[in-house]
Write a structure and sequence with these properties.
This protein is α+β, with helices and mostly antiparallel strands. Helices cover 29% and strands 22% of the residues. The strands form three sheets. The chain has a seven-stranded antiparallel sheet. The chain has a two-stranded antiparallel ribbon with strand order 1-2. Strands 4-5 form a two-stranded parallel ribbon.
């Protein structure tokens, strides 16, 4: 009996190796399945204070609402736009802390030639929207970086997956290919609202989590 079971495992294990998503549904980190193409959402979250103040200064940029749950189709031309805008903004804006620029710890605004990480995000988002990208597919996202410091990136929410535009990298990468821990991001339904990317305490994240924690 043991030999029969062993032979069965020898046959099955290469199949799991070829398709790692089948092996315990992937690797979970802070409530995110790191082999999934889309981030997992965990309900409402408070917006960053910098975004609240930004919306007071630029109210038109925060009025966008949509009832659609559709993800944006990512054609080769649209992919090239992501890459080009990410590279361009990274090149023309010099990274500078808000304290040095404005004498404030946190100010979210559109940069001219210098800015903090969230300023890169805001400019990339505006430039892509001017090229026809919907606001529901361009979501400001807050993470902790490889040094455990707070950091802002732009998530492109597409039918082919969630992709990251980052002032630290000229390449556009899949969300699960960056060395970050995901905290919260803008809602795709309402530009003023935010959603959590981490489960609340006492809620376990697993493949059978409720439909409320969807990856849409």
């Amino acid at each position: 009996m043991y030999r029969v079971m062993l032979r069965s495992l020898i046959i099955v294990m290469p199949l799991l190796a070829a398709n790692p998503a089948r092996a315990e549904y992937g690797v979970w980190v802070d409530g995110q399945m790191m082999r999934a193409p889309f981030m997992r959402l965990y309900g409402h979250s408070l917006p960053p204070i910098g975004h609240i103040r930004f919306c007071r200064t630029f109210p038109k940029d925060c009025r966008v609402q949509t009832k659609s749950t559709d993800r944006f189709a990512l054609s080769p031309d649209r992919w090239n736009e992501l890459v080009a805008i990410n590279s361009l903004v990274n090149r023309i804006v010099e990274p500078t802390p808000d304290q040095e620029l404005y004498g404030e710890i946190e100010r979210w605004t559109y940069p001219e030639n210098r800015g903090d990480c969230e300023d890169y995000v805001l400019l990339k988002r505006r430039m892509l929207m001017e090229r026809g990208w919907p606001a529901s597919s361009l979501l400001i996202t807050v993470v902790t970086d490889e040094n455990r410091a707070g950091h802002a990136i732009l998530t492109a929410r597409t039918a082919d997956g969630d992709f990251i535009l980052d002032n630290k990298n000229s390449k556009v990468l899949a969300w699960n290919k960056v060395p970050y821990r995901f905290f919260k991001r803008q809602s795709y339904r309402d530009a003023k609202r935010w959603v959590s990317l981490k489960p609340r305490k006492g809620i376990l994240a697993h493949p059978t989590s409720s439909a409320k924690n969807s990856s849409r």
